[in-house]
Structures are given as C-alpha cells and as structure tokens.
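User: I'm designing a mutation panel for Peptidoglycan-binding domain 1 protein and want to avoid disrupting the core. Could you give me a predicted structure to guide residue selection? Please restate the sequence first so the numbering is unambiguous.

Assistant: Good idea. Sequence first, for numbering, then the predicted structure tokens:
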Amino acid sequence: MFALLGTLWHPVCLAADEAIVARIEAMEAGFPVQVLGSRLMAHQALSAFYGANGYQPAWKSAELRRQLIDSVEQASHDGLNPADYHADILSGLALRPMSDFSEDLRADLDLLFSDAFLMLSSHMLVGKVNPQTVHAEWTANRRQRQMESVLKDALQRSDITGTLDSLRPADPAYRKLMAARQDLTRLLGQPWLPLALSPTIRPGDRDERLNEVRRRLSLLGELAESPATFSDPRDYDAELESAVMRFQARHGLEADGLIGKDTLTALNVIPVERLRHIDATLERWRWLPESLGDTYVLVNIAGFELKMVENGAEVLRKRVIVGQPFRQTPVFSDRIRYLVFNPTWTVPRTLMIQDQLPRILRDPNYLSRLNISVYRGWGADRERVDPLEVDWPSLNRNNFPYQLVQEPGPQNALGQIKFMFPNQYDVYLHDTPGRGLFSRAERSFSSGCIRVEQPFDLAERLLASAPDWSREKIDRVVSEAQPQTVVLPEPVPVHIQYWTSWVDNEGRLQFRNDLYNRDARLIDQLRGTAEGDTRYNTPVAGSGPAQDKL
C-alpha cells in the first residue's frame, strides 16, 4: 500500500527509483552531476529531499512543472537570472509527457526540477550572493529554513507559485521596486546615444540637445506626452525646466533647473544600467531579516537619509551625513540600546594619528580651542597630561601612548547627542556642530559614523515610551551640558543599508549615485551563472565581510 500526499509518494514498500539513487549517490560521493549539460547545485538539499521521499520522482504533475517553469522565467522580475535555474532546458523539454523519455532522462529531469526549485527558493529567501563572502551562493542550505522541507510542502499543497512568492521579502518597498523594474524594461532597446556634457543649458537658452532631452524626459515620465506648446523644441521653456527639476530631484541632484554636467551624465545612463542598480538593491533587500521589527530605524547610505518606522508607518525622516569614500560607512543591522546626551568624544586611534596629529603640529592652539584633553594610558589608570609637555613631533603610528578626548560642548564632534548600538565597526548615529553640510545634495563627509540632522526629533521618538521623558526634559538635559546616558526601555532595531534605487512614498522611482562603487561587484555576481563555477561556497582570500565590500 502507498500513501499519497499531494504529488509526493511516501513509500511503505515502494522500490526506489534506481536512476535517482545513482545520481544522489554520485553527488554524495563528491562527483559533479550534470543533466543535459547543466550542473545540479543544491547537493545537500537534493540528497535530503529524495532520501526522505524514498528516492521517488516528485514532479509527475504537469501543472506543477508548469508553475515552476513560469516562476523560473519570471525570476528576472526579482533581478535574478533565469539561466541559474535551468530555464532553457526546463522550458524546452519538461512540459512533454514524462512517458516520452527514457527512465534515465525522467530521473534527470525530476532532479533538475527539484534543483531549480531549491536554488530559486533559496535565492528568493536570502539572496543569490552570500554577503559574507561576496560570491554567488550555489547551495540551498543557508540560514532560516531547510529548503528541502519548503519543496516538500509546496508539492504537497500543489502550490509552487504561491510558495515561491511567499519567500520574497514581505516589505511593500520590495514589491514596489519590482513593479518599477518591470515598468523600466519598456525602455530597453530605445536609442540612448550620449549627450555632450557641455556647455550647461540654462532656462531661456536654445540648444540642439534639448530635442533629445525632451524625448528622454518624456520616456522617463517627467514630461507630458501631450502636444507640444513650445514654438521650437530646441528652446528651454518653463515646462521643460519643471521636468528637468523633477528629474534632478529624483536622482539626488541639486534641483536648480540647470542642465549641466551632472544632469546630463544622469540623462546619459542607459536604461539597462538603471535596471542593474535596481537588481543590486533587490538583492540587498533579500539579505535583510525577514522582519525589520515593529519599530525600527533605517539609514540609506547612498540616499543620505534616515527614516523611522512604527507599525508599518513612517513617523520620521531626516537627512544624514555618511562616511567619505575612503572611510566608508558599513552595512549592517543592530539595535539602538541607549542615548548619550552631551557626550564626550574619545578620538579613535586611526583618526588620532591620521587626522588629529597633523592638525596639532600645524596649530599649537588646536587642542585648547576645540576643548580636547590629552590622557596618558587607558581606563581607570589613565592620567591627564598637559599638552604643552608632549613632544608631538616625536609621535607616530608606532609611538602614540595617548588618548585624545573632546569634552562636551558646542564644538564637540558628536554634537549634543549620540545614539549607541555597540558594534565591531565603532559606528553610531550622532549630532554634529557642522550643520551647514546638511544642505548639500551629496553628503559624504564623515569618518564612517552617521550624522543626523535635527537629532533630538529622533531622540524624542525613541524615548516616547520611556517614563518621564518629554521634549522639554530632553531640552533641559541638553542645556545642562553634562554627559547623561539614557537606556531605552526596549532596544530599537537599526538597519544601515546601501540602496542606490528605491520607490518613494509618492510612488516615484528614485536613483542615487553609487557613492562607494559597491554595485558593480554585486551585479557581476548576480549576472554570473553556476555552470563552470567550482568555487561553490568558498570565500575569497582577503575578502572582508559584506559590510566592507557591498
């Protein structure tokens, strides 16, 4: 007797399919197994799945095969490559009745379908690129779920499409970006020859390039396609100026209406390049936890922006300043645990040597002017020393037995508050005395930490559930100019991300420059295929964590 569960046969005394057994045994012995020239990749998950299923065929249903083929062909909507999931072979052969094929080929195709599902479901859930090795992940045994169990459940419920869809990031922002990607694909194949980057075109000018500028802005949805009201398409009129300013704002440029080098460079980016940036962002979404938290803070490094979300609703949005390209802000998630009002700033050793020492040597009054104290030693045994007694010219990387500590005050580099989530990168959110920099369109001026505009608004939201804390109390504590640490009633998740594309609250697709040149390497891995790749999950020597690379 046999028990039928959906399309999965659970054997009681059913003989195993010897062709499937042979292939699984070959994989378990470490041999690469190929089906019609396409390598099976999900070795452990395939072994576990077929072992639990008595080594019986799993894809007898033509309907379920059709669902999987459709899902594989639509993988590009998620920025994934259908070729990674045997798309050409499955589409060309597998919809024919299995009786058309030999016993060996039936076993091959069954394994190929299972491998396609296991790899696609794994990539949907946690991404194709392993952020810890910066290489494509060709196993199906990553964190969070056993993918062989996901496959078994999908087959039992006869719902391949719904199962795969449920593995995508649930946040609406991911779905919106997928939809925007689909809309952008309509521009593929459109002529997009480079526009000359000079001279700048100003409102009221006449320029031969404006006819092409109009066409592109119309294709991008910035300019209405209604009959033109201008006398000459080469004239820079008010309607075109408004469209240019919308385009500039959507690309993180100064929305001044001047069609200069930066604006023309952005207009010259071909649609397929924009799609690649979207694909990189979709992949980074898949690296995030399945739940960001009921309440969380999210920083987009490339967008120079912070937002706070409570129960799915955005309650705060602020501009931020991030690390310079040579001192990049890392990507990671943590939890804000406490705030420090009127903080001191203990200068990190690298900054003491690379930044502070040259300034001290140039300006004898530098330390006193910025209220920086000098200490010999560390911890409870450190002793304060007179800066005038230090032989500063003799100090270097190998000889710097001091700490520099900036006392609280209006010139403190951290401003009047910092938001702490202790981490290996020594990165946190904080105020700044240099508030004028927030008016810049591109704001990469820090040494890695994140400076927040109007930080006390963020403090007020974080302390909303804390007893006896109000905006008035915050202002009073700050005015006292004494350090005070406040532990949050509940730590709040903070996600520091690097997204060069997203859909804003008004439904507009936004793009930003690849500030740290992180997208290109990630896109290369997304575009790479499994065939011929023998590295599998092997880290590259010298590669750091994803936070430093992607």
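For picking mutation sites, this is relevant: Confidence is low (pLDDT under 50) at residues 1-13, 531-549. The longest helix spans residues 103-126.
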